[in-house]
Predict the 3D structure of the following.
Amino acid sequence: MSLTLLPEAAYFENAGDNPRNEIRFATRKLLARRFVGVTAFFGGLTLLILFVFAILQSLSDGVHFELQNIGAQIESERTELRKLQIELDRRQAPQEIFRWSDGVLGLVAADEPTIIRVDPAYISASANVSLDTGTRSSSDWQSVKTLLTDAVSSRPRRG
C-alpha cells in the first residue's frame, strides 16, 4: 500500500466545479442574510418598545408629581381648616361673646330680667314666620322686628 500525494491545486480544482458546493454556499449566504435581517428587525422593535416605555414612564412620573402636589395642597387646606375651626370655636365661646359685648360694643348687662308682653294677635300673625336662617326672607324678619318693636314700646318705663 502506497500513498501518493497530489498537488494542492488538485484538491481545490474539483471543489469549485461541484454545483452541490455552490448551492450550499448560496444557501448559507441566504440564511446568513435572513438571520441578520431578522436580528436587525427584532433589535429595532426592541428599541421602539423601550422608547414607548420611556415615554409612558415620563408621563406616569408627571402625573405622579401632580398628584403629590395636589395631596400636599389638600393637607395644607385641611390644616388651615383645623386652625379656622379652632378660631371659630374660640370666637363663639361665651367668654369671648361677653368680652365683645361688654368691652367693644359697649352693651350693658340688665340689672333684672325684662318681661316682654306680646299680644295674642301678634303671636297668631307671626305663626307663619320661619325662624330657620336658611329659609328666612326679609319680609319675615321685618314682621318679627315690627312685633318686637311694638312689644317693647308698649312696656311701661321705669322711673
Remarks:
- Helices lie at 8-17, 19-91, 94-104, 120-125, 138-153.
